[in-house]
What does this fold into?
Amino acid sequence: MKVDTRHVITFITICMIIQYLLCTSEYKYYYDMISDIVGYKANFYKNEKNEFTIKNMFIFTIMYIAVSIFYYYYIVIPKKSLTESVVFGVCLYGAWDLAIFSCFDKAMYHLPVLAYDTIIVGGAGLSLAYYITTNYYQVLKNYTPLLIVLYFLSMILFLYKAYIYNTK
It folds into this structure.
């Protein structure tokens, strides 16, 4: 099976743009949840000792790229249906969120945020990227550099929103 590198890059870029925009839409609620669970006001750029770190940003970006590649391998390459795409995305994000937050008793008080992250960001976000790539790739492949610029802009927007959540 031959995989077109440009197709992979286009899918991952679209996926990441959508993921960052959806995460930007939920950032305040998500960070409020994390702050409540860990017991201190979360800061994406600092650790619990208030020291600057890029570890969180790096892990966050790598995790989303890894999820996109995993999704590409199991959904895009075999050309699954949109319904299978949504179910797979919800299961993938559901497993991720529940595995992490099942370790904390307070996480169960934040089920609406977890549901939004699982259903909208996971299921709908990944499926939208799949739909766009599947139906509009012939046009989008000519605009890969623009997509990469849009990716970086969406990432900067998300990281800025994460920064202003707790600047102290």
